[in-house]
Amino acid sequence: KKTSYLVLGENPGSKFEKAKSLGVKVIDEAELRKLAGG
Hints:
Blueprint: E1 5-7, H1 14-22, E2 25-27, H2 29-35
Parallel strand pairs: 1-2
């Protein structure tokens, strides 16, 4: 697996389901900003 995080918007669609099934951590924009130090 090469993807560490999936950043979700308002309508995540099928990528969200795929990420869940693969055990990829799902975050929102606010959490992404924290990770980026802002």
